[in-house]
Amino acid sequence: MTRPRPRYNQYLEPIVPKEPLLKASSTPYNPALHRFAVFTAGATFLLLIAGALVTSNDAGLSVPDWPTSFGSLYKIPHMVGGVRFEHTHRMIAELIGLLTIAIAVWTWQSDRRRWMKSLGVAALGTVIAQGILGGITVLHFLPPAISSAHAALGQTFFCLAVAITLFTGENWVACQPAPGALDRRHPRLLTLALLSICCLYAQLILGAMFRHHGLSWWPHVANAPVVAALLTWTAIRALTEQAKTQAVRRPAMLVIWLLMAQLCLGFLAFMTRVAWGHDAVQPEWPMVASTVAHVAVGALLLATTVILAIQVWRYVPVPLKERVPRGEAFAVPTTGSD
Predict the structure, then answer these.
(1) Where are the beta strands (DSSP E) in 41-117?
(2) 3-state secondary structure at position 173
(3) Are 244 and 179 in contact (CB under 8 A)?
C-alpha cells in the first residue's frame, strides 16, 4: 500500500492538518437559534450594566431578602431609591435564566455537535451558579470575595453567550475556513491571545475587589499598563500578520478601539471615584456614569478578546515540525505539483 506523500509549506516544513475539534459542517445553519442567541447575549450585556448600576449606587442591600423580594416572589415592590436598581437587576437576571434554559434545550435537541450541546449545558450551569452567588451576596451582607466572584462569573457567562452567537452563526456553521498566514513567530499568536484573556480576568477581579471594598485601588491601577501592553501586542500581531484574514482582523481592530476607550474611562472613573469623590456622602452621577461605562466596556473588551482567540485558533495555521521518515526527506513537491 502506497503511503501518502507529505505536504510542505514554503519553508520546507511539513504541514499537518489541524484536527477539527470544533467542526462547522456537522450541523445545518439554524437562523432562528442564532437570532435567539444574539438576543440572549444582548440581554446579558444589559444585565451587566444593571449589576454595575447596583454596585455603583451602593444598592446591593436595598432588597434585603433572597430569593424573594420583600417576602414575595412575584410582586413588584415600590421602585424607589436603590430598590429600583436592585429589583430591576433581579428581574433581568430571571429573564436571562429563562433564555439560557431555552438555549440549552434548543441546542441539545437541534444541534448535532456534541461540543455545542456541552457548551449550552455549561452556560446553563454558569447562570445557575451566578444566581446562587448573587443570593449568597445578599444573605451574607455583601462579602467582598463572594461579590467579586459574582461579578467575575457574570462576565464569564457573557463571554459564553457571545461565543454561542459565534458558533451558531452562518459564517461558522455553513462556511469552511480559509487558512490565514502561517504563524511562525514565538510566542504564537494564539498564546498571546490566551495570555491576554488571563490578564483581563486578573484585571477584572482586581477591579471587582476594589469596587466591593475588599482591596485598595492601586493593584487594579498598577496592573492596567501590563494588560494594555499585552493587548496592544496581541492586536498588532494579529493586524500585521493576518491582515487578509477578516475573521481575525475585525476583532483585533475592535480590541484596539475598546482598549483606548477603556483606558480613558478608567482614568475618568479613577478621578471621579478616588480623587474627587472619596469623601462623597453618596455616589454622584459622574462617579456612577464613569464607573458603569468602565465596567461595560471592560466586558466588551473581554468578550472581544475571547472571540479573537477563537478565530485565531480556527484560522491561523501553525507549522508542526515532525520527524520525516528516512527515504522521504527529499520528497518535496515541486511548484505546480499536487
Answers:
(1) none
(2) helix
(3) no
Tell me: pLDDT of 15 over 70.
no
Alpha-carbon span 96 to 213, nearest angstrom: 27
CA distance 131 to 127: 6
pLDDT at res. 281: 76
Task: Please give the DSSP secondary-structure letter assigned to residue 69.
Answer: B
Q: How far apart are CA 235 and CA 246, in angstroms?
A: 13
Q: Cβ neighbours of residue 26 under 8 Å, at least 6 residues apart?
A: 112, 113
Q: Which of 29-33, 76-80, 277-281, 323-327 is the least confident region?
A: 323-327
**Residues 6 or more apart in contact with residue 255 via CB below 8 angstroms:** 231, 234, 235, 301, 304, 305, 308
* Under 8 Å between Cβ of 154 and 161: no
Q: Which of 317, 335, 16 is nearest to 6 (CA)?
A: 16
Q: How far apart are CA 59 and CA 308, in angstroms?
A: 35
Query: What is the pLDDT at residue 5?
Result: 52
CB 82 within 8 A of CB 58: yes
SS3 249: helix
Question: Where on the phi/psi map is residue 323: left (φ > 0), alpha (ψ -120 to 50), or beta?
Answer: beta
Q: Specify the pTM.
A: 0.88
